[in-house]
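Technical note accompanying the year-one report. For the benefit of new consortium partners, we illustrate the data format agreed upon in the data management plan: each record pairs a sequence with a structure-token string. No post-processing was applied to the example shown here.
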Amino acid sequence: MYTQFFGNYLLSNGIVTQEQLFSAIQKQAKTRMKLGTLAIHAGYMTAQEVDQVVIEQTHQDKKFGELAIQFGYMTSDQVIELLKEQSPDFLLLGQILVEEGVLTHAQLEEIMIDYRSKNEMIDLDMTIETQEGLSRLFDNFFIISEAPVSDYERMYIELLFNNFIRFIGDDFTPLSVEVCNVFPTANCVAQKVNGSRPFTAYINMDTDTAIEFASRYVGEQFPEFDEYVAASLDDFLNLHNGLYVVNISNDFSEEYSVCAPENTSNGILEFTQPAYQFSVMYSFGLIHFIISVED
């Protein structure tokens, strides 16, 4: 989750635009982590030292690690350690933004320090996601979103993010939660969940995004939008809500149930009760999710 929320942090603080972040996410899977980025993250080198080595590489046909050792910025053991290290994915996102000229190494260094500080990430090894660390990430996410979500709704959204990672992929960034009154749909599925706090959940995306979403979900590439793609959207929402019902029973000892999913595509959703809308930005498109809570 560190990578997903790092993108949200960049957006919420006005460091990048949605377009810049989307471009970086698309390139992330095809980009290798650079030693200079790892060195800054590990605290072995400053951004200024990394920039100096990069400039020197234009004059000498040597690898980054060789020059870093030559200049005395790192030892050979530190270079070997970094080359073997499994780095946090969010560093790669930052590196791409540097390569695209959106950030400098110095700005990335400051951003990483601030991101770790705000989320109380004391341990530099952020490849290990602890429950305590993830709870702080979610706390800050909802604070930034300024949405008055309950414990039930928070559980629902946390589970949704985990299911996106589990069934679709981790190359996404959640955008802020917003109060929603009206929403135009493209390919949309709705499902009502009954219980002490009944609500209706909606998942919506455009056609190209729906095809790729369904292809990832079933592990088979669909060439076009058809009934199988539509059924995959239904099945994902039904699976997610079913897991939520199980969690509600386990954690709150309450009995919930789900109705059959319904297609509400190519129309306008209007809400008189509180509704929360948020999107997740995948490398293949935007997925919109709405939770409409009933009194």
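Partners are asked to follow this layout when depositing records. The chain has twelve helices and ten strands.
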